[in-house]
Amino acid sequence: MTDLHPSHSGAYTSAELMVVAAARALAGVRTVFVGVGQPNLACNLARYTVAPGLELIYESGVYGARPARQPLSIGDPTLVTGATSVVSMADLFGLYLQGGLVDVALLGGAQIDRYGNLNTTVIGTYTDPKVRLPGSGGACEIAINASRIYIIMHLKKRAFVEKLDFLTSPGHLHGGTTAQQLGIPGKGPQLVITDKALFDFANAEREMQLVSLYPGLTIEAILAEMGWKVRVAQSLTETPAPTVDELAIVRRLSSGGTSQRVGEA
Amino acid sequence: MVDKRLSLKEAIAEYVQDDLSVAIEGFTAFICFAAGHEIIRQRRRNLTLIRMTPDVIYDQMVAAGVARTLVFSYLGNPGVGPLHCLRRAIEKGIPRPLEIEEYSHYGMVGRYFAGASHLPFFPLRSYLGSEMPRVNEQIKMVQSPYGDDVVAVVPPLNPDVAIIHAQRADRQGNTHLWGLLGAQKEVAFASRKVIVVVEEIVDESIIRSDPNRTLIPGLIVDAVVQVPYGAHPSYVQGYYDRDNAFYLQWDELSRDPERVGAWLDEWVYGLADHAAYMCKLGAETVGRIRPGAAPAARIEYGAYR
Q1: Considering only CB atoms, which chain B residues are within 8 Å of A87?
Q2: Hey, what CATH topology would domain B8-103+158-288 get?
Q3: Which of B28, B149, B150 sits opposite A75 (nearest CB)?
């Protein structure tokens, strides 16, 4: 099965629309905490399009990165050269993250549940793991302290589960105001960006709900990839296909292009 | 002034004995692979290995059988995928079972800070709602003595030995480091013994010309070792880039324990030291990881007489 979707702006892949959708959601955002791969592409695309003033923060201690190449990891030296500031991790987590200066953080995981809680620790049990995953890294404190969380994950039944094998990073916990009651300062997950659809948590229960379908996909196709019967928002929309400009920038970035602004060249 | 220069072989023999806890820190950058390899070569056993991100170096050390326990916060080959040797040790006990003690990044940073500054714990806003405190009873929740706030606390960590890689130091161990600062300063101050490994040993006047860049003072340093390219295949800002081809190659070969054994024989046990490793690696690799120039603007400290 090919993953190329035709549109009036040219054929695109669902992975490309995923990056574009994440970038669009960063409109107007001032600071974003970035991971590698698709989150990094999305943040750089946002800087060229909807959020020209967006500053990138990496847990490695970099604020205001200006990567001259696609970083290979969140500790890539290209993130250091030309950055606004490079600080110790104590300062990054204490003064920037816990200090409330991160508007949006992009997170992912091996498993997510209906309240946006994430598992990056283990499949199976902790003491007898079937698959040992990387663990928290900074994700647990990022999930708790960033003002808002966007989650980027591929939509798959084994990832969108009724019950996590392990809760590494809290989302809305048991729903409603349970996270706030526990003293979590951030507003938690706001958006889940997948390769097939977008979800938000805009209801009193803070439960994941389908808000936007990628072109050509049905609700049934989404439900088939989820471990529970997901809510569907009353105002379900179709995600607009990438524009010619968005596609061109994503492709330039993913082929190792620079972070120079469009028009600056 | 004491001249603390040693060879890496001497420094490891002197300060890294069996059963000790060792922290080779450096977040993606400044990872002292040369020291890890020397520890393998000297066949240390039952070490407690401490690192926020175990990376390929601890994957190699655990595969070589030097470790009993791993204290960490992120178990991955950065930007590449899983660490296969560590997964085999944790999931299947190969080559031997590995005890783990797990935190988040900020939890590890806080443990180093509490250890360095002789505090009984470090408070942080993390772990709320997470299952991590359930599987690690060292992570606790306390109520603020000044109000209703509940915060997490982690205990101090004082490794027996810290090994820090940096750009340059003088003979007393006053160390300049720039780039990703990670938790190198905190872990150095927290540890009972500190080995500094540098690309260059410079005159004290170079260090004194830019005191804001001195991350680690010689006051806490026990040995200074010069090992050019000692962080390969990780990187040193301004000196060389990460050798990502190696990280990708390790992802492939480390899936097979026999190939890991053969790699250790060829690249660690079969070589006398890191100079022999670099010689074997060859000029082509060195050329490939050389960065372009991007100097900082000159700054003026002023003379006040």
Answers
A1: 181
A2: Glutaconate Coenzyme A-transferase (3.40.1080)
A3: B28
